[in-house]
Amino acid sequence: MGCCSGRCTLAFICGMQLVSVLERQVIDFLGYQWAPILTNFIHIIVVILGLFGTIQFRPRYVTGYAAWLVVWMTWNVFIICFYLEVGDLSRDSDLVLTFNLSMHRSWWMENGPGCRVTPITPPPSWAPEDHRYISISGCLMDFQFIEVAHSSLQILLALMGFIYACYVVKLISEEEDSFDFIGGFDSYGYQGPQKTSHLQLQPMYM
């Protein structure tokens, strides 16, 4: 019963992770954030494998899923530090999240709740010709705090997933040990029905 409850909870957490990271993947695509896009894609694959291992009683898949969650939490802590500009980090750097392939920022910068985007014309002389120069005002919440909230949610789900993954691996291992202890399929206490190898023929009289 405990294994079923733990597996069901872990499967639910995996489902929540898939929904939240797919939403985040769409937002990162719209903002051309290539590093998060790549990391989100790996996370989606690992969560699917973890869900498969949870349903199919595959402890190795669940263990790999738990190990990846440590990396995933570390990545999201870095994202939080990046947007809050901890230490020498700067959220205006193009190299970190876009691999220096574009000058785009978070999609939430222009599309956050209450944000009003006003194009500035004429653009300044230093602005690239293929980019627009805009002014953003009226945002109810700055984009960096929205990104921090997203990463905090991912850390919370990953922490819950890690705890339940370890719990499910422990339960599966205990069930396998108890199954081996009683003999499993190799038990010599069970013998199948014996087949009769001799047939007795009786004469028939008409």
What structural class should be given to the helix and strand makeup?
mainly alpha
Low confidence ranges? 184-190
Strand order of the largest sheet: 1-2
Distance between the termini: 66 Å
Q: How do the SSEs run, as a string of H and E?
A: HHHHHEEH
Helix count, DSSP H or I runs of 4 or more residues: 6
Radius of gyration: 29 Å
What's a concise summary of this model?
The chain is mainly alpha-helical. The protein has helices spanning 2-30, 34-55, 59-83, 95-98, 108-111, 143-181; strands spanning 116-119, 134-137.
What is this structure's SSE topology?
Blueprint (H helix, E strand, L loop, with lengths): L1 H29 L3 H22 L3 H25 L11 H4 L9 H4 L4 E4 L14 E4 L5 H39 L25
Antiparallel strand pairs: 1-2
Helix pairs in contact: 1-2, 1-6, 2-3, 3-6
Structure report:
This protein has 206 residues and is mainly alpha-helical. The protein is built from 6 helices and 2 strands; from the N terminus they run αααααββα. The chain has helices spanning 2-30, 34-55, 59-83, 95-98, 108-111, 143-181; strands at residues 116-119, 134-137. The chain has a two-stranded antiparallel ribbon. α2 runs antiparallel to α3 (59-83) and α3 (59-83) packs antiparallel against α6. The protein is elongated.
